[in-house]
Batch of 2 targets.
Target 1
Amino acid sequence: MTAPLLTASGLRKAYGPTTALDGADFRISAGEVVAVMGPSGSGKSTLLHCLAGIVPPDAGELRYRERDVAGMSDSERSALRRAEFGFVFQFGQLVPELSCLENVALPLRLNGLRRRAANEVARMWLDRLEVGEIADKQPGTVSGGQGQRVAVARALAPEPRVLFADEPTGALDSLNSERVMQLLVHAARETGSAVVLVTHDARVAAYSDREVVVRDGRTRDRLGWAA
Amino acid sequence: MLCIVAAMIGHTLLGLLEAGPSHGYDLKRAFDDRFGRSRPLAYGQVYATLSRLLKNGLVQVDGVEHGEGPERKRYAITAEGLTDVEQWLGRPEKPEPYLQSTLYTKVVIALLTGRGAADLLDTQRAEHLRLMRELTDRKTHGDLADQLICDHALFHLEADLRWLELTEARLDRLAAEVAG
């Protein structure tokens, strides 16, 4: 087995009196697709937010390629997210004023690519996600399935080492959901990105290599419950 | 259950014969191509079914070829056979009630014997997901027929998983009822 890219052990996180994570473990290697499953309120989204450096854990160890993420400052975590991670959420969260092409090009521009080069890469990614024909349209004028494919293209275009997907097909019908998952997993495997896939949908989780179950803020994988 | 399967094979062969007369061997191939990918028909099943259909007047022998091997009969659907297919297609299938669930029985026995059922449910969930991964992979690389066949199985497995999740959430209550 390859060395884990991202590891977490004993993660704890509370929001006021509510414990969201109560000692969660996690690991993912390059190119792996891991589904994080569990009932509503089990802590799976909080786990994703901690793993992705969006919120710092209250306790526990979190390492990304041997770097201590739990001990990073806000700006360090922000830089890490921008350079190494990609995100897809349930509702694409595309910028409504920009065209689909500009949305996909945006993170590339932020990473320093010039406009023409960024647009070329963005167009290639839209084609790859089978939505090349809507490049010049604004997100508000395309269907939910098309919009979500644009969001996947935007997340994968900078070729992140880890893609975090939180209920990426939650707002789609069965057919669109299936196609988005096929394209997402195929594209991630081609770029070698690891995928952390939060979902309550077993048919979506079936696209993963393995699953981790979160219940009452604790995780369980094939090795059993975390301590 | 065996009778239901035999009847379905009979209706399916009749439906395939609507396209035109055929030999038993070609019917078996047509059946396997469309419906028997994971469980092909045995030759014995094909010929036993055809002889039953012949006896009931739903097919007739359309011709016999004499060659070096055994003689080959060509079968054709009769007017009664056509009516039978028509009625079969128009009749809704009885929905499976799944009231005698082995999983439910296991959960109750685990609780009755003081073992706890959470591990049982978790192990089952992992096994269901393993099969769902296999089917999803087959679906992703297969043709439309594969996709439809796998989807049917995937939706049923998903229903099982929802039941497992709900039962997990109700385990404490069930344990109290079983103990009472």
Target 2
Amino acid sequence: MIFSSLIFLFAFFPLFLSIYYLVPFRFKNTILLIFSLLFYAWGEPKYIILLLFVTLLNYICGLLIDFKKEHLLFRKVVLIFCVVSNLLLLGFFKYTDFIIENLNHLGFSFDLLHIVLPLGISFYIFQTMSYTIDLYKNKVLVEKNFFRFLTYVSMFPQLVAGPIVRYEDVYKELRSRKIDFEAFSCGVFIFLTGLFEKVLIANNIGQIHSLIITDISHISVFTALLGVVCYALQIYFDFNGYSTMAIGMGKMLGFSYPKNFNYPYISTSITDFWRRWHITLSSWFRDYIYIPLGGNRVKKARWFINIMIVWLLTGLWHGASWNFVIWGVYFGVLLILEKLVILKYIRRLPKFFQHFYALFFILIGWLIFFCDDLGLLYQYILKIFANGNIVDRQFVFFLKNYMVFLVSGLIFSVPIVNKIKMCPFTKFLIIILYLFLFVICVCQLSGDSYNPFLYFRF
Amino acid sequence: MKKIISGLVSFIVVLIILAFFIVPKESFSYNENRYLAKFPKFSVENVFSSKFMSQLDDYITDHFPFRESLLGFKSRVYKTLGVYKQMDLYYGRDGKLYQEYEKPSGSDKVIRRVQSFSEKVDAKVSFMLVPTSVYINQDRVPKYNTNYDEKKTFDYYIKNLDVDFIDVRDSFFKNKDDYLYYGTDHHWTTKGAYLAYLEYCKFAGISPNHYSFSSVNQHFYGTLYSKVLDRFLPYDTILKVDDQTKYKVYFDDSGKSSDSLYNYQYLNKKDKYSFFLDNNHSLIRIENLNTTSNHSILIIKDSYANSFIPLLAPHYQYIHVIDPRYYHASISEYLKENKIENVLFLYNILTLDDDLGIVSIK
């Protein structure tokens, strides 16, 4: 079930929310847990066992680490066991088929296992691991109540697509939290903003990208560039929209989840970009891999190796495919170069040039990201850099027909809107606008199953 | 502000949920021509295979209250915001809908099949390709579009297909300000068919009738409307020609027969174009009870021919109409058995490309 579906918006969530608000506080976690498990089971019921198993594993390891506080070796052994098991599970479900495919390229012939990736596994394994590691480092207190721990892991707003919430973020709120109309309406407002980003901007701009990518053999330079820009906008509004919806729902339930995006496309460097894009993921890698490896407080060569390890893993985290590996390495190299030379010089240049520099390399990054086949990547690069067809009708058509979505995408990628001064009139306008956009969203979603093409195929 | 928004949005959500239970549920969607999802069966097996959940999802989306009105509203709002192409339809400057013409992929297959058919049979074979509305009305369609150049397809057919080709384009371009195509349906109007009829008469050496037209229905929303459901679109009018000839019409697939080339019952239904020749049948035989002519013709066709045939009918003693999408027996045998001397292929260029019937005629 995705948040931007009619069944979620008009059945699951309203039902959950009304029960959640009606029951006394001590039952609220239980209701949240039941609905979260239901939410998880909706698409693929059997993997709920995996979710329970991972949770139980980290829960028990947590208890063990806490049990022998003074026995450092014991704690370490338990932690290593726990982390390795987590990673093995993630590796098995996410990378087995990828590894087999590559072994087969080298001459082996293993059968693919055709493993369906369990929903949200990359997110919840990172969450549970953060708990165990933090516990080992004495940064959080042990959770003795299994169901409360399970509630933390499975909370449906952030279960499948983040933000990656750490146990310390919600430790207090799991025990007591303020739920009132103020928080509810704030949450609804945030949720709606995310819904609009996802349904109205990402889904519509995504159409352009998928139209361009279906057949790139005759596209012009500008169409090819537009394809990359549209992908950048689509993935941002899709992901940020989803995170924003999660944060909004969190608010309605009384939780404050961490922010996941901070206008990534106004970055002035790649270093800056990764402080603004998928913040909870990059800070996870920073705190649980980069810093434990020694971070930058080591010799230069080691420091660069640390960076490359982190970015190789970041790439692989996004998916089991070579283009993600290249994508990760690409950013690793760029970040090293920035730390070595680029940042020193670019800081002296006008702001405009810094933005241009950052955006250029971010867009190249997205190109690598969406070309899941290296042949396609090569063809696409040729279309941009070695193509006699500079601009064509198709490009102008996309620009004109999707103007309203492209312009909104650009406007909401930069922090302009929150600079509007609030007065009664603007407030009134925003109310009208939000109601209108909500209705349009519902209209668009109700068209998902509408298929008039069957009509004259009879 | 946030409180007002959240209050009002919650209110809308509650209203919609209430409407979902109150508004009576349709089981059939006329605009989509399909049965809507039924409430899924609850069983342990269905739940564990998540079949129950996905069917429940379909059920809720299919029966969402005011679904079609909401979609129509969206189309209109998007059009107002400048989205002039929705799905494969362009909103024209004249407020009509124009269906996109994409690059064809099946031309060679069609040509090969028609060619070998025409060489096999002992009859005079002619081929008429009807241009699309978007091609004839280029100046009414937004300038920046993704249409394929239809002229190329015509040239390709004329060059590679060695049968008599009846080209109606000049006449259509000359009369493009007439009501030749419906604004909400993918067919031509009776006036469009009339132009084609004149061209056919010229080709066949028949002196054409000067028909007068009368309207039989002024509230027609066709297949293109069904895609956008935009209630702001103007209705189309269905015209028929005045013709006093008496016919006997045999529908071989259903075994029924009729005294009319029209079925008036369809005018009260959604699918009003089916008024012409009672929609598509595998084989229709039309016997002219008034004529002194002893000519006969076989028309191999798609639904465009349905409004064309009534115009041609007075000139022949027998008209045989075969729709190869439904007629799977040998057409050449049929020609021989019935001693038919003329064959006309009548197709519109858009649906011809993926018509599964014509590429398997025997």
